[in-house]
Each structure stands twice: as structure tokens, then as C-alpha cells.
Amino acid sequence: MEAQTFLKLLLSVLFFILIPGNCQKCNLSSIQIQQTNLGKDPRNGVDTVFEVEVRNLCSCNLKSVFLNTQGFASSVLVDPKVFRQQRNIYLVNDGHAIPSQSAVKFRYSWDHYFRMSPASIQPEC
Q: Reduced to 3 states, what is the DSSP secondary structure of residue 91?
């Protein structure tokens, strides 16, 4: 009986040690940003339409995903629930979690693409 109690306690401790460790794998490199040039905007024929895919490569959900991008602008409205400026960085998906191996997409239109990089994330493990 004592051995069973000890084994249960040991397994419980190991469980709580190993589970939080999954979040340690989640870092800024867990966010992949891909931009695709979709061609000229038919509305004005001048600007180029870009589709941005923000993909979560982490095994955990990621919330409060923020991106760095210098001087971002768009000649078409970008849904602020998907991508909006907060101070000097940009919030993705209204701060809601992006599930593991899933992506959030949005489009913008400008005469050039804007370089984007992950600024911060909050893992949900």
C-alpha cells in the first residue's frame, strides 16, 4: 500500500514538472510570418496587395502575439480585430490565442511590403 501511494505521489510530481516544460519550447521563433505578393490592387492599379500569414509553430496555443513592423500603412482597411497598432507594435488576432499549428491571415495594400518580425508572445500550456 505504501508503495502505491509513493508511486502516485511520484507520478503526480513528475507530471507537474514535465507539463510546464512544454512552454519553454515556445519562443519568438515559434511564430512564422510569411507574406505573399498577390499583385496589383484592382481598386487603384498602383498599390500591391500582400497577404500576411502569422503561423504558430509551437506545440502550445499562443496568445497576445505582437509583431514589430516599421511604418506600417495600408491603402485598404485591415480588420483591427486581426491586426492593429498598440503603441509602437502590432497586436495579432485581437490578442486571442492562435492554436498550435494554426495561422491568422490578413491582407494589406501598399506600394511596397513591410518587414514584420515577432515582438512578443504569451504561451498557453
A: strand
Strand 61-68, strand 89-92: pairing? antiparallel
Q: How many domains is the chain built from?
A: 1
pTM value > 0.85? no
- Helices H / strands E in the chain, number of each: 1, 7
Contact 95, 63 (CB under 8 A): yes
Domain of 68 in residue numbering reads as 2-124
In CATH, what number is assigned to the domain containing residue 26? 2.60.40
Query: SS3 string of 35-59?
Result: EEEEEECCCCCCCEEEEEEEEECCC
Q: What is the mean pLDDT of each run of 10 residues along the chain (125 residues)?
A: 56 47 79 97 88 98 98 97 97 98 98 97 95
